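U., I forgot to send this yesterday:
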Amino acid sequence: MNEFKNRLTEFYNKFNENKRLDRRHGQVEFITSIRYLEEYLQKGDRIVDIGAGPGRYSLYFKNKGYDVTAVEYVRPNIGMLKAKDKDIRVVEASATDLSMFEDNEFDVAIMFGPLYHLYRKEDKLKALSEAKRITRKYIFVTYIMNEYSVIEYAFKDNNYKQIKDKLDETYHIDDPDALFFQSRIEDIDELNSLSGLKLVRRFASDGPSDYMRRTINNMDDETFEAFIDFHLKTCERKELLGASSHVVDILCK
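Result:
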């Protein structure tokens, strides 16, 4: 087990991903992503969930009757996933090496984690290349956005002095030792171009929800429903994408 995997394991031993998606601000991301995924899925599709974490998306689609394979790199997450459903197919693997799968083995790939744990461009491209190889139709890829991270961590949480050496003159974060790596739209466009993948659609999975966690968590049902409606009707607006905490690309070959 390499050093980076050890650090990821330590992080996910402490961080409760299930709780994050259960709280209302996390539900924004889940509801939005499911809405888009279901628009592109067809009955009988085979799904591979690369970087499945504790399995929120894998189990949702398995329970909907889809053939799902969960791929996860961190063993505590695999343990949580298997504890929820001992029959789900789980493969322990990195997103950069999916050699156990055949070309075009799956119809749709979900990558809601790996690209923001990979720092080097060549590793990101390898992960995209592997997803492209094993997937026949659509690939859903999530990125953590740079401006959200700067606003939230550097300024809102008052950590600017601690991280200022990690910021370039345009406030792009460059920290090869971090567990989470941030992107801008132009960075994502470059990866798509280099990987030979075509952008079908792009949306902000959570929009402003991470900036206003406490407010969203305390909303009454009617207000929360209206917020979800607002978000779903604005989450593809170009002027808002870069400021979201997460952006999802829908890609095809």
